[in-house]
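Below is how a single chain appears once it has passed through the pipeline. First comes the sequence as given, then the structure the pipeline wrote out for it. We keep one example in the README because the format questions we get most often are answered faster by looking than by reading.
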Amino acid sequence: MWDKIPGFILRKRLPILITVVLLTAFMGYRGSFNEITYEFTKLLPESDSTLIDYERFKKTFGQDGNVMVIGIKKKDIFELENFKTWYELGNFIKQDDMVKEVVSVAHINKLTKIDSLKKFRLYPLISKTPTTQAEVDSLKEIILSQPFYHKIFFNDTSYATLMAVGLDRNIINTKQRNPRVQALEKNIEKFLEGKDFELHYSGLPYVRTGVSTKIQNEIVIFVALTALLTAIVLFLFFRSIYVVFSCLSIVIICVLISTGTVNLFGYKLTSLLALIPPLIIVIGIPNCVYLINRYHQEYHKHQNKALALVRMVRKIGGATFLTNLTTAIGFGTFVFTSNRMLIEFGIIASLNVMVVFILSLLIIPIILSYLPPPDQKNIQHLENRPINAFIQQIIEWIQFKRSKIYWVSLAISAIAIYGMLKIETSGKIVDDIPTDDKIYTDLMFFEDNFGGVMPFEVEIDTKKDGKAIVLKTLQKIEQLQNMLGEYTEFSPSISIADAVKYSKQTFYGGAESKYSLPNNMEVSFLAPYLKTEKGADTILRAFVNPEKSITRVSVQMADIGTIKMENLKKEVEARADSIFDKEEYNVTFTGSSIVFMKGTGYLINNLTGSLILAIILISGIMAVLFRSFSMVIVSILPNLIPLLVTAAIMGYFGINLKPSTILVFSIAFGISVDDTIHFLAKYRQDLLTGKFTMKEAIIHSLRESGVSMTYTSIILFFGFSVFMFSSFGGNVALGLLVSITLVVAMLSNLILLPSLLMTMESRIVSKALSQPSSKILEESQSDSPDDDVIDEDNVKDLKL
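Resulting structure:
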C-alpha cells in the first residue's frame, strides 16, 4: 500500500490541494454556526433514573433552573431613596420580554381575604413608587410580618436583599441566552449609574451564561496561543519559516474542519468539545515533526528532493498511521460510555485525529514539493548538540546502568502508587472558576446570606388525588422542612404547607402569630377560600399538580461539591423515609444540583472505564503487530508509569479527581504511546536491514528516533502548557498535568523502553519485531533491495 501512495500524492497534488481548500472553506462555514450549551443533563444517559425523575419533575412543575438572582447588602434598604431605587429597578427589569416575573421585598404579592365572596385574592403589595419615608416604614412593617417571604428575599441579620428574576425558558435554552443575559446585566448597571448599589448576580442562567461565554472566548484565545507558541518552538528547532508555515497550515485546516464536524453532527459545544481545536494543534504538530524530520534526514543522505519526499511518506507513513490510530482509540473509547457529553467528544475527537493524519500525509509532501529544498541551515537540527548529548547520555545509561534504571522506576512507581491513593473525587458546579472571579465571589455572597442558589427539590407523590393538601400530608411536609432547616447547606425551604400557613394568617387578619398549619376545625373554615379562589389556586399550582396528588418542597443549596452533596443527600433521604411511609408516599430528591452530582460521578466512572478500555485496546494492537505478550509489556509499561506519576502529583498536591482532570490520563496515554510506536518501528527497520545486532539497533534507533521524540515532546509540553493560561481551574490542571505526563512519558520511552528491550531475551524480541502480523509496518519500514526500484517508480516523471 505504502509503495504507491507517495507517487499518487505528488502526481495529484493540485487536485488534492483544491479539494482540501474547498473542504476547509465548507467546514469553516459550517463551524461558524456552532452553538454552546452548558446543560447538566448531558452528563447522564437518557435511561438513568435520576434524569428520568428530573424530567418528570420538570414536566409537572416546570424547569427549576430558570431563575437569575440579584443581590445587594444594604442595612438601610428600607430608607426611602434606596427602597425606591430597588422598586424601580425591578420594574425596569420587567420591561425585558425575556423576563417573566420579578419578586423581591419591593415586589411581593399580598394575600387578601374577601369575606363576602369567601375568596382569597393576590394583590401587589406596592402598586406605585413610595414617596415618603412613612410610607416605606409602613410597608416594611407589613413585609417583615410575612413569614412566607421571611429569609427568602431579605436577611434581617446580614441585611442582604435578594431579587429573583424568572426568565423565559424558551429563550435561556437557546443561543439567545448569552447575549440576552449579558445585555440585561449591562442595562441594569446602566440604570444604576450614580447609585450606591453594588450588585451581585447568580443563579443557574447567570452561571451558565458566564461559563459558556468564557468557553467561547477561550476557544479563540487557546487556538491563537497554541499556534503561536508551537510556531515559535518549531522555528527554534528547524530554523525555517517554511517548516513553520507547513505545520501551521495543516493544523489550521484541521481546526476549521473540526469545528465544522461539530456542526455537521448536530452537536452543541460543551466544555469538552471546546478543547478539541487546541488539542488538534498539539496533536497534529508531532505528525509534521516526524514527517519533516524524516524528509530532512533523507535529503541529507542523497540531496534528492523528490526521492526524499517519497521515502518520507513510504517509511514514516505506517508508523504515523499507528500513532494517530492509538491516539484516536484513546479518545474513541469514550464512545462506549453512556454519557452523551463523552460520546460526542469521543466521536469528534477520534474522527478528527484521523483527519489530521490524512491531511498531514497529503499536505506536508505537497507543500514541501512546492518549496525549495532545505539548505544547510534548515537541517542543522539533525546535529543538535544539546539533544544529541542528551541522547548519548541515555545510551550510556541503558548500556551500563540498567539495574539502576529499574530500581529507580520501581521506586518512582511505589511512591506514585502511594500518592495515587490520596486522590479525592469531587466536583462543584463552579469548581473550575477562579475564586477571585465575579461568578465565584457572587455565588459565595448568596451562599453566605441565603444558603445558596442551586435548586434542590423534594417531590412527594401521595398516590391519591387531593391527598397532597390534606392536613396529615401538610404536617409531614412541615416536619420535613424543619428537618431540612437543620442543615446550614440549605436555604429556607418553601412548600404547599407554607402556602396554607399564609392562607390561615390572612384568614385571621394577617396576624403573624397565626402563621401555622390549621387544625381540623380551621381546615373546614379555610376550605371554601382555597377551593374557589383563583389567586390561591395560583399559589397552590406552584406546589402541587392539578390533581393535587403530587407536591414539592423547594430549597436552594450551596455548591458544596459532589462528595459532600452525595453524603448529605443520603442522610436527608434516610431521615425523610422516617417521616413518609413508603407504602403511602413516594419521596424523590431531584433538581439541577442532584442531576449535576449524579452526572459528575457518572462522568468520572465513565472516564475511568474508557481509560482502562483504551489500555486494553492499544495493548491488543501491540499484540497483533508483534505477536508477543512480551512486546505488549515492553510497549505498555513505559506508558503506564507516567500515568502513575501524574496520579501521584494529584494526590500529593490535593488536585481532586473530577471530569476536567481525569481527562488528562486518556489524552496523555493516547499521545505518549506514539513515541513507543515510532521507536519500535525504527528499531524493527534497523533489525531488518541485517546491518545491526540487537544492541546496535537499539542504539541506532535512539540516535535517529530520539531526536524526533524529544522535539515532539517539547512541542507538546509547550502546546499543552497554553491551557495553564485558562480562566478555568480544570483547564489549568489539564495543561499542567498533561505537560508533565508527556515529559515523563518521553523520558520513560527513551530510557526504560530500550532498557527493557536490551534486558529481555533477544530471540523473543527480535522474532516479535521481525515477523509482525500486520503489513502496515512491514511495508512502510522495510529496507529491502527492491526499495530503490519502488522509489524510482514513484519519482519517475515527477516534475517538482
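The first strand starts at residue 67 and ends at 73.

See the next section for the split statistics.
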